[in-house]
Fold these 3 entries.
Entry 1:
Amino acid sequence: MNAFSLDGRTALVTGANTGIGQAIAVAMGRAGARVICAGRSSCAETVGMIGDGGAGAEELTLDFADPMAAKDAFDGRDIDILVNNAGIIRRADSVDFSEADWDDVIDVNLKAVFFTCQAFARAALARDKGSPAGIVNIASLLSFQGGIRVPSYTASKHGVAGLTKILANEWAGRGINVNAIAPGYIETNNTQALRADPDRNAAILDRIPAGRWGQASDIAGTAVFLASPAAAYIHGAVLNVDGGWLAR
């Protein structure tokens, strides 16, 4: 048996239409999983990238502006792996930050993560088929640090790290692994503003020991590992994939 294989398993990846979510969905497909690619916009491109070579893929429309969007997503579906990747960010000085921007980010990045985990766990525990289930949450370096001009994002990602630990405490003994990945500075839509700012871009690169921004594919292999049998005894971990940023 290949301990890193996802053969015979089905994964639901949120925010799979682009960036980190797309890379994770494709990597899980290549590792043998059937992948349900969920997003608020079409995931047809991701489904096409996975292709027919493995167990196949399908798309599912979920908009986490409604934090309860996934409450029925696991009904009638035998899903073994959940990747909570969908997220948004708002930038403004904390003295100017609006209530709307606070609520929008917390709803998508934290409230939706909890209730999606809850719906997944209820289905997995009711199924009781004897094989393990796994959740991989996408946290952030700002699960550990404060950042600048992103108060709701920082609060939400601290919350994701905490949720990962409490859910691991409750579900590890019941056959559900719950872990998280804390990506470093990755080239995605969320970091476009930083990369376009010459001063911020230079300051970030100066601190990264690896000397480069990360790629979405750098996160994908870690997600496959945490969802695989090879990670069966890993519970409640928040694994940094940051080019050495936090070691600096």
Note: The mean pLDDT is 95.
Entry 2:
Amino acid sequence: MLERGRWSARFAAGPADVAAAQRLRHLCFIDRAGRVPRADGRDCDGFDAACLHLLVEDRATGTLVACCRLLPLQSGAEIGRSYSAQYYELGRLAGFAGPMVELGRFCIHPDLTDPDILRLAWAALARFVDDRGAQMLFGCSSFAGTEADAYLDAFTLLAERHLAPNRWLPRVKAPRVVRFAERLRGRGADLRLGLRRMPPLLRTYLAMGGWVSDHAVVDDDLGTLHVFTGVEIGKVPGARAARLRAG
């Protein structure tokens, strides 16, 4: 599909490719987080069968180094099918008229730090979004651990600068949430520290003009806090969009 340096990106071609992605996800989300290992060493759920799986591999060896899954939706009327809808009440987004894509389970092998891996992944995602004519990219952006106090500056920054517009704002659905906007708005954030404490995926979303829910969900299964994140494609700054497409 795409190549950059020693890496190539393509979509999974069958069950073996999906299983490889599930094993990498297990390494990133279960093993490295100290969670109880799954018996089969794979992170999988019922959404995998409905998704397309993007793979980034070492061109020389075929080793999988990064992956994510994508769920295309014809419009917001289908948003109840999404993974995010388990945790957020998304009734307002049901009125979104254009095609959407949910991005989930984005991970890079924890032993690799080559920035070209992330650049290639985003270039492939940008091409997919363009090819589908998607008008919104959304998903859950996760913070490691479930203690919100470790991320006060990050959550304050989100509350002050990056909340979803009211017409799309997700409402509370999950049993355990952190209402950070209500708690922290007006506190004053350390911008540099707040950005440093945010997950890389969320920083990328925000650089594209993305926005988040006003609360974080406590996910005890994966041991994370996550916020619903959306990017309206038509509002991505032109220079940023060009850089993403170029990889």
Note: The first strand starts at residue 2 and ends at 4.
Entry 3:
Amino acid sequence: MLLPLRSGELQKLIPAVATGNQFKNALGNPRKILQRIMISSIGGVITLLISQSQVASQFYSLWLIVGVGILLYILWGPIVEAGRINSNLRKYPCSALFNGQVAAIFTREKVENSHEQANKIGDLEIIENRRTWIFLELEDEEGYLGQICFPMEKAHQSIREGTRIFCLVLSDRSDFSTISAFSDAWLPSQRLWVGEYPFLLRPAFEELCSLRLR
């Protein structure tokens, strides 16, 4: 079942400014955090050193502000990235609440990153870091709708075919003949949220489900 959202509901469910969960997700893995710290510290220090050489210049204040801004990149970088990700779903003109079930479940290995490393005889070989992803195929009374996927965790082992699932469906067409994107999803029977990225304000979405399906 697809229940089209009313005007303004999508913007209430997917904020323009990053939430705490979205900030944490956009912050990334330890390697990405380290990269942000290096950019922040090196870029900030260099810019502040330049500003000190411009004390007598009319551009001193500008250099100082830029330097502080770069030092704070570790904070505002993930906020900007999360806002950009949110905008990818907020831009769609048509959105609907999906009330359906999990039709099928399967897993697949995905390469998350790779790097070259010398082996025992000195030859370079590619080392791949793989992670198991779980795929959920969604359907309702009208049939197959699409699939969502995300990195598998221990809690996801309890998901079964036939489990009721709610999420947002985004499209460029008002009749939803083509589906462009899905949000993260909620499985109320297990009180479990799943998805690659936490798009939704979760308490607000749970409340919407209760009101629209009452």
Note: The helical segments are 9-13, 20-27, 30-52, 60-71, 73-90, 202-212.
